[in-house]
Design brief:
Helices cover 70% and strands 0% of the residues. By secondary structure, it is an all-alpha fold. It has three domains: 68 residues, no CATH class; 425 residues, Cytochrome c oxidase-like, subunit I domain (Cytochrome C Oxidase, Chain A), CATH 1.20.210; 102 residues, no CATH class. It starts with 9 loop residues before the first helix and ends with a helix. About 8% of the residues have low confidence.
């Protein structure tokens, strides 16, 4: 009879059988989840990593039967510092850059505009500073975040090893240096020395991105897994390189011209291929792979995802070329191509969102742990942004006039803060704790972040678009919105930083995971406080035995049977160890939601729970 079942958590298996580490690593775990693996079921693991469940279970049981405990024990007890060293520097640097030259500089600029009550700020370095802020946002905040996550996630999604990992640190140093130096030197690029430094920094960025692509493509190519979302990832990497190479050409152009401002004919398409090409393709590709599992969604139709892919990329290409040329050589044909491309992007993007099923009722209930609302709202902002851009593009195609700086600025904030930053918040809150096998530092801080970023971004998008009508009042509101966004990002940065720095051993279970369900449960050590009495549902208020079904809440069970806490802990629900977490999630998480989140069979789980509390 097999010792391992797919309803067991990876942490439960590795705690009992340390030698199984090498099997899980073979299929893409690679030290994810801390020394003893994540608190996720084997069934969930096989879906995320596209692994044959029967084959994995067979190999796990073979390893257990063959012995080799000492070899496995050594690998489990060693904290995977080397793996964490891959992504942590990128993420921490991203937080630092967004809270300096990124969002904070943008908030300062908004405050100055609010004081003046106009977009016309007559300072020779003004536009260059705003563009430097944009570069710090796109490359520092988002670029570094994507690179760090990608280095950790690519080998795990593709069930392979990270290739040429010695280049990861080199790419980080070069990228960070390039971003900082380029952002600063562009402001002073009217000076020949500063201009040459800007060109050099742009070249350094291109080298860093080239190394990233080399490692990324080598890793993906080494895997036997070929999946439909791969093309999105590949397109993102190509757009990243093209955008960075364009940055080198633009820097050379500015150096020759003795200018520190990217011309209006070049800057919009340059920003668009970064936002929709590099960043957009990466988010959409990872969404296809992970969101059906993270949010319990129906899996997307692969043919529709392919149609969306080709439509979006065709739209980006046509739009970038037509927008660039119509800025240099205005014509009705180029205006028409621009409008067509904007409409094509809109149709393809809405088709993608529809196919992702993000706004439909989930097929399975899962506990989203605070991150789900960020992802859902992120796609609301994405839909709003592409709709705005389509309207502006069609308007320009028919009128021959620009939509104007204020409206384009509203769109850019909808896509960059509403869609991109919101997605970073949500996916980071889901992934980083999983990488380390611990809980997010603070769910309540995450909820405050959600409120601040949405209020701030809504104010910015709405009132920037109304500056032509409301004048000084709109500018004043915009000034406030910037600092709300800074507060949101600062709180998120603190939350994630604390999560990355949290000692893994604090989350380790000293005894519980060694305990088998068949043994007597030790009650005294984990008596829950009576948090559920105050929020008791009809279930918890009844006398006599509690009827346990899929709709029964975890809180109802623990309120009626306090000693059941040991059972939940033994099955991987380690967040229930914290009384505050029990108070927050107990009354609202059903057994069905809990089983779906961890990949357990509901009937089997309830049967084991009943046996444990009897």
């Amino acid at each position: 009879m097999p010792k391992i079942k797919d309803t067991m958590t990876i942490r439960e298996v590795m705690s009992e059988y340390p030698q199984t580490r090498r099997v899980f690593d073979k299929y893409g775990l690679a030290h994810c989840g801390g020394p003893k693996g994540p608190v996720e079921s084997i069934a969930f693991f096989t879906k995320v990593h596209s692994v044959d469940a029967e084959k994995l279970l067979e190999e796990l049981n073979q390893v257990i039967e063959s012995g080799a405990i000492e070899e496995g024990k050594e690998s489990v007890d060693e904290v995977p510092q080397a793996e964490e060293a891959l992504y942590k520097p990128f993420l921490k640097a991203a937080v630092v850059l967004v809270l300096t030259g990124g969002c904070v500089l943008g908030a300062v600029a908004l405050t100055l505009l609010a004081i003046k009550g106009s977009f016309d700020y007559n300072w020779r370095f003004w536009r260059a500073m705003v563009q430097a802020h944009g570069h710090a946002q796109f490359y520092g905040w988002v670029g570094l975040f994507i690179m760090g996550i990608a280095y950790h996630v690519f080998p795990r999604l593709k069930a392979t090893d990270l290739r040429r990992r010695e280049l990861v640190g080199v790419s980080f140093i070069l990228m960070l240096a390039g971003i900082i130096v380029k952002s600063v030197s562009q402001v002073f690029a009217e000076n020949a020395i500063a201009a040459n430094i800007m060109v050099l920094a742009s070249a350094v960025e291109l080298i860093a991105v080239s190394l990233f692509l080399y490692v990324g493509f080598s890793t993906i190519k080494s895997s036997e897994l070929k999946e439909y979302f791969d093309k999105y990832i590949a397109a993102s990497l190509v757009w990243f390189w093209l955008a960075t190479a364009s940055g080198v050409v633009i820097s050379i152009y500015l150096s020759v011209k003795g200018s520190n401002v990217i011309p209006d004919s070049i800057n919009p398409p340059y920003l668009h291929i970064q936002a929709m090409g590099f960043i957009g393709m990466m988010i959409l590709g990872i969404s296809l792979k992970t969101l059906p599992l993270f949010l319990g969604l129906k899996f997307p139709n692969q043919k529709l995802s392919d149609i969306s892919f080709w439509g979006l990329n065709a739209g980006i290409v046509i739009l970038a070329i037509s927008q660039w040329f119509k800025g240099l050589y205005p014509s009705n044909i180029l205006d028409g191509l621009f409008g067509f491309a904007a409409a094509l992007e809109f149709i393809s993007a809405i088709l993608f969102v529809h196919n992702l099923n993000i706004f439909r009722k989930p097929e399975t209930e899962v506990e989203k742990g605070g991150y789900g609302k960020f992802i859902t709202v992120s796609y609301i902002w994405f839909s709003i942004a592409v709709a705005m851009f389509a309207v502006f593009g069609i308007y320009e195609a028919f009128s021959g006039n620009s939509a104007g700086h204020a409206l384009i600025g509203s769109y850019r904030h909808a896509i960059t803060v509403g869609f991109i930053s919101m997605m970073i918040f949500g996916m980071a809150a889901r992934m980083i704790p999983t990488f380390r096998g611990i809980q997010l530092h603070s769910i309540s801080q995450l909820n405050v972040t959600f409120a601040l970023i949405n209020i701030g971004n809504t104010l910015r998008v709405v009132f920037q678009g109304l500056t032509f009508a409301l004048g000084a009042f709109s500018f004043a509101v915009m000034g406030v919105s910037g600092w709300l966004e800074v507060a949101a990002i600062a709180l998120f940065g603190y939350n994630i930083w604390k999560t990355m720095n949290k000692a893994v051993e604090l989350e380790e279970e000293p005894e519980i995971e060694e305990e088998r369900v068949e043994e007597p449960l030790r009650v005294a050590e984990f008596q829950p406080e009576p948090p559920f009495a105050e929020t008791a549902t009809a279930e918890t208020a009844t006398d006599g035995d509690l009827e346990i079904t899929g709709s029964t809440t975890v809180g109802a069970v623990l309120n009626k049977y306090p000693h059941a806490l040991n059972f939940f802990l033994s099955r991987g629900f380690q967040h229930l160890r914290n009384p505050e977490m029990r108070k927050q999630i107990g009354p609202r998480v059903t057994l069905n939601m809990a089983c779906n989140a961890h990949g357990f069979d509901l009937a089997e789980f309830i049967a084991e729970l009943r046996e444990a509390i009897s």
